Prior knowledge:
Layout: H1 4-18, H2 28-48, E1 55-61, E2 68-70, E3 75-84, E4 89-91, E5 93-94, H3 97-103, E6 112-113, E7 117-120, E8 124-128, E9 130-131, E10 136-143, H4 161-175, H5 179-201
Parallel strand pairs: 5-7, 6-9
Antiparallel strand pairs: 1-10, 2-8, 3-4, 3-10, 7-8
Helix pairs in contact: 1-2, 1-4, 2-4, 4-5
Amino acid sequence: MTTFLTLQDDLFEMLVQHAPKVGGVHSGSMTTRLKRWVNSAVRDIETRYLFPELQESYEGVTVADTESYSYPSDYYKTLALRIVDSAAGTYLTRIAASRFDKEFPHSTTSNSGRPSFFVEWDSVFSLSPIPDAIYTYYLRYWKITGDMVLDAAEPLLSGRDSIIIPMASAEALAELGEAIASANMLALGERRIAKAMREVQTEPGHTPMLGGFSLLGRSNTDIHVPLP
Length: 228
């Protein structure tokens, strides 16, 4: 099982091999740095590569005459948003904030009905037309976690130590002045990420990501990924 502590220990072992100045025993200050490097690497991977572990679904309901709704606390990016009622389900079209404000009145008097569009703000999304009743919505999203604090904490990418450690090592070695070793670790981490993403794409029963993401998972368009 991958925990915050095992990642710190594995990172330290890697640094001992490639940065002699680290020494064989780490002090309290080194522990603090190990935690920072691990968290930084995990955050970088989570926000750049859409692994299956980072895909989540959330079901909510609209309120009549209410335009905006909050995202889940671990939300990072929207993959798709769908409205479902007794008739059918409809994928909503994402539009830019400038268009939303210009074309869709923030008034239930002139803009009320079954939602067809949505716009994303910092921590909420707004619907248009503004719901005129209770509708169920399904949000499929890319999730991330905050920095790990407790040693027993498990990252969302638990089991992907072979990716996390090289990426954390690359950052740590750069900071420790080991430029060549850092570059080698970064190259190793990126090769392993590419291999892992290829394996994900070819898993039995896996539905390839459509439209919104490249092979390496980087968001590159504004097209939603259909919900299963």
